[in-house]
Amino acid sequence: MTISSTTRKTPPYQGNGNVTDFSFGFKVFAAGDLRVIHIDRDGAERVLALDTDYRVRLNREQNTAPGGTVTYPLEGRPLPVSEKLVIIGHLANLQPIALTNQGGFYPHVIEDALDRAAIQIQQLAEATERTFKFPVSDPALSTQLPTALQRAHRALIFNHDGSVAVSADDYVNQTAKTAASAAAAALAAEHAWDAASKATKKIDEATQLGTPADNTVTTKKLVDRAVQEEKLENAAVTTTKLAAGAVTGAKLAAGVAIDNIGYIPADLSRTWTIDNFDPKSRAPYQAACRWLGEVMEFGEIDPNYHDMKTIAPEGWVMIGLRSKARTFRISLYGVQLKNA
Predict the structure, then answer these.
(1) CA dihedral for 236, 237, 239, 240, sign (positive or negative)
(2) Burial of 115 (0-12, 13-18, 19+ CB in 10 A)
(3) Mind listing the pLDDT tens digit of every residue in the chain (340 residues)?
(4) In what order do the strands lie in the sheet with 84-89?
């Protein structure tokens, strides 16, 4: 018969979990003239083995009813929906027919030989359709590649004239360099982000320390050491600009723009300092004083001994007494005064 179809391959059969028989419709001479390929869910292909993985049942008359059926699998679960099967012609590129001198000359023998040649050409054409091809209009270009040793770990490239070649760089080394460069870039980006975050924080802090309007700086708005001498103009914050008790020694660290101060009365004329302190007189009513440090216990007396006395250090003034529990002794407390 004539070969009237160029098809030498079935479309991919999609499994459904039930079907085990898959048909094909092209002429073959034997079950071994086929190749059955299994495709898994990831697209990986595997050539199956005849009579181990599958079985072939050929139609009796290949000239009038070419093709047959492939049964797969021979045992186990049928092809699932995530897998596929392809049947393709795989006739060997041989010519087994021998014509002897003065021997028998049968038309079907000649026809089978011609069919075999046509099938082999079709198989070659099918394989060629799945290869890279240069356009017809291209000039003759070299497609000769270097040896396997020379092209190992290299990439396929095209020269300036469009011919095929391999890269000079080692692809494995290039991959390692690219990964190292990416890691270095990521680290640099991380450092840049940290620096930007710190800079943003400093800008925010500087913005919070901008020049305020009168009476807008209070203890609630300042953190410890937030306002320092180098950040304030001379006398920018004075006692006249602060409410009584707004800034105290406990709220400011040493060395800030405002020295440690205690209670500041609204009437500054009542302030009791070294300049107007008279040890022989009493301080004015509601008087206040400024001191250089913490309150110090500088001595104690016992009322039962009339000749007992204690003397405060020079520059110190007694500010209070405290009796000790279950004793007759009285402790004396003082502070060191300073000029306003």
Answers:
(1) positive
(2) buried
(3) 678 899 999 999 999 999 999 999 999 999 999 999 999 999 999 999 999 999 999 999 999 999 999 999 999 999 999 999 999 999 999 999 998 898 888 899 999 999 999 999 999 999 999 998 889 999 988 888 889 998 888 888 888 888 888 888 776 666 667 777 787 788 888 888 887 887 777 666 655 655 455 545 555 444 554 555 444 454 444 544 444 444 444 444 444 433 333 444 444 444 445 455 555 555 555 555 555 556 667 677 776 665 666 777 766 676 666 666 666 677 776 766 654 4
(4) 13-14, 84-89, 34-39, 45-47
What is d(CA 314, CA 279) in angstroms, rounded to the nearest whole number?
A: 12
Instruction: Count the Cβ atoms, other than its own, within 10 Å of residue 66.
Output: 19
Query: What is d(CA 215, CA 335) in angstroms, rounded to the nearest whole number?
Result: 30
Nearest to 84 by CA among 127, 24, 41, 25: 41
